[in-house]
Write a structure and sequence with these properties.
The protein has 564 residues and is α/β, with parallel strands linked by helices. The protein has 24 helices and 16 strands. It binds phosphoenolpyruvate and magnesium ion (MG).
């Protein structure tokens, strides 16, 4: 029995079996040295198992997603069949006396580097295929075949150094009950997805992939930021009691769900959902949320091998809008780039991708055809349902008007009236020119996740930077207040849809700042509603006033603690 502590990124408790996602470079270091003959044999076996693996994967992806998506794994099989790669690896084992894993890594690095230099984007894209195949071979050679993409057993708790958003989309969420990582930011997209899926997650567990072996029993108590490995009877009993209490509390929160969201003195607050996939509308209905404040469309397509067609998009957006039965639905255009790259896009090499070709900047340049197809799909859906178009990472009037021109042109070509169009305010630039932006939009939403990152020049995906990355920094709070005041003075609806809206004390402070619309992961809304129903607006406004003149995060944190 051993207990590790970290930091909670999604609440809940899970009793499950560890599935360790190993960093293949570590396998490479850990593999024992052997003679040339044995290394070549290990390599041959790795090729064989990787081929079997890929056949099964291709079949599964074909059944679950379709022929196009399965194509990628056919391509991987063809690369494995090609003798050039295998001969090169064998040559390195023999010539340089390398272990199989090291020879695979060296060969794959060379191969990928050559492809990376190619002019043709298609060839450059093959570089990531080669790396993927290399990873698979290394895992098999080192006897740790469990893959980021393999099917999970029931009640699996994933243990990894780091996960990508696409990993969570790909993993079987029916079987996944918990996530444990070494690194992950609280407002990172992985954290957001875990909360949306209702999967408990902790991070900050140093060396966790080396301390745990796949198959070990784990008790994950995310509320305490605690992980117990191979628990004894006493730990199991106390864990079960805590889980029961947590479930009872969840039920109590649910009992609030049919109640309207009002402050104790009757001010209405509209609670909406942040969603990433159509089936999450069920959570939204269960939590009695009044609409979808943010549909993050990029998550619908991260695991697609081909760009989505207009028809496919129309079907997905319609599913969401239909299930919301006439309630407001705000669909954000693709916020690609940064850590969100779908399989069908060549990953651009940028020195600072989060601030590079991302969001609307990408949509108006390299991603223009994709943006146009998305706009067409959104317009078609808006002709039947109550849907608004939200533009991400807007900087000011120039990019906003370019995007609006595209929407207007397509709308007049299709003879479909324009739906409400608005922006996600998540850059300092947008805050500084908010008055001009407000003259061109029907609504604004405040994205506190990115806004905090960019105002404070602090990575939202990084760990242990609570003092550096906090929505409660006076500068961020004042930026939120600026947007809220400006929007209200022009009678433009303003919503907060960053993760801050789902934290009860912060949600209360936002209401004090004048915000009346909050959008969050459905799993967080019960507690927010509970808090808001117990507070008087006057008290919240006083707290907000005090927070706006506070000089430090610590002071504002104290104010928030007194509210939530
Ligand atoms: C935000 O930045 O606050 C936001 C809502 O967008 P995302 O978290 O998807 O970047
Ligand atoms: Mg954002």
């Amino acid at each position: 029995m051993r207990t590790l502590t970290g930091k909670m990124i999604a609440p809940g408790l899970a009793d499950g079996t560890a599935v360790v996602l190993l960093d293949t470079r570590w396998c490479e270091k850990a593999a024992p040295a052997a003679d040339t003959h044995t290394e070549v044999l290990r390599l041959q076996r790795a090729f064989h198992s990787a081929r079997v693996d890929l056949e099964a994967l291709q079949l599964r992806v074909h059944q679950e997603f379709g022929a196009n998506e399965a194509e990628i794994f056919v391509a991987h099989q063809l690369i494995l069949e090609d003798p050039t790669l295998r001969d090169d690896i064998i040559e390195r084992i023999k010539r340089d006396g390398l272990r199989a894993e090291k020879a695979i890594a060296a060969s794959v690095d060379d191969y990928a580097a050559r492809l990376n230099e190619a002019q043709d984007p298609y060839l450059r894209e093959r570089g990531s295929d080669i790396r993927d195949i290399g990873d698979r071979l290394i895992r098999h050679a080192s006897g740790h075949p469990s893959s980021r993409f393999s099917a999970l057993g029931i009640n699996s708790i994933i243990v990894a150094e780091e996960l990508m958003p696409s990993d969570l989309v790909e993993l079987d969420s029916e079987r996944l009950v918990g996530v444990v990582t070494e690194r992950c930011g609280e407002t990172s997209h992985v954290a957001i997805l875990a909360r949306a899926l209702g999967i408990p997650a902790v991070t900050g567990m140093v060396n966790v992939t080396r301390l745990i072996t796949s198959g070990q029993r784990l008790l994950l108590d995310s509320n305490r930021s605690e992980l117990t490995i191979d628990p004894g009877q006493t730990q199991v009993q106390s864990f079960r009691k805590r889980r029961m209490r947590f479930e009872e509390k969840r039920l109590r929160d649910c009992a609030q769900e049919h109640l309207p969201c009002k402050t104790a003195d009757g001010t209405d607050i509209l609670l909406m959902a942040n969603l990433a996939r159509p089936n999450e509308t069920e959570l939204c209905a269960a939590a009695n949320l009044q609409g979808v404040g943010l549909l993050r469309t990029e998550f619908l397509f991260l695991d697609h091998a081909e760009p989505p067609s207009v028809q496919e998009q129309v079907e997905l957006y319609t599913q969401v809008a239909k299930r919301m039965a006439g309630r407001e639905v705000y669909i954000r255009t693709l916020d690609l780039g940064g850590d969100k790259y779908p399989l069908f896009l060549y990953r651009l090499h940028e020195s600072n991708p989060t601030m590079g070709l991302r969001g609307l900047r990408f949509s108006l340049s390299e991603g223009l055809p994709l943006f146009q197809s998305q706009v067409e799909a959104l317009l078609r859906v808006s002709s039947q349902h109550s849907v608004g178009i939200m533009l991400p990472m807007v900087l000011g009037v120039d990019d906003l008007l370019s995007a609006k021109d595209i929407v207007s042109r397509i709308s007049s070509d299709l003879a479909i009236p324009l739906p409400p169009i608005g922006v996600l305010v998540e850059t300092p630039a947008a805050v500084l020119v908010i008055d001009e932006i407000l003259d061109c939009v029907d609504f604004v939403s405040i994205g506190t996740n990115d806004l905090t990152q960019f105002v404070l020049a602090s990575d939202r995906n990084a760990l242990d930077s609570e003092e550096d990355y906090s929505v409660l920094h006076p500068a961020v709070l004042r930026a939120v207040s600026t947007v809220s005041d400006a929007a209200r003075s022009k009678n433009t609806p303003v919503t907060v849809c960053g993760e801050a809206a789902g934290v009860p004390g912060i949600a209360a402070l936002l209401v004090g700042l004048g915000i009346r619309r909050l959008s969050m992961s459905p799993s967080l809304s019960g507690r927010v509603k509970h808090t808001l129903r117990s507070q008087h607006l006057e008290k919240l406004e006083l707290a907000a006033k005090e927070a706006l003149v506070a000089r430090s995060i610590v002071q504002i944190r104290e104010i928030v603690a007194s509210l939530g």
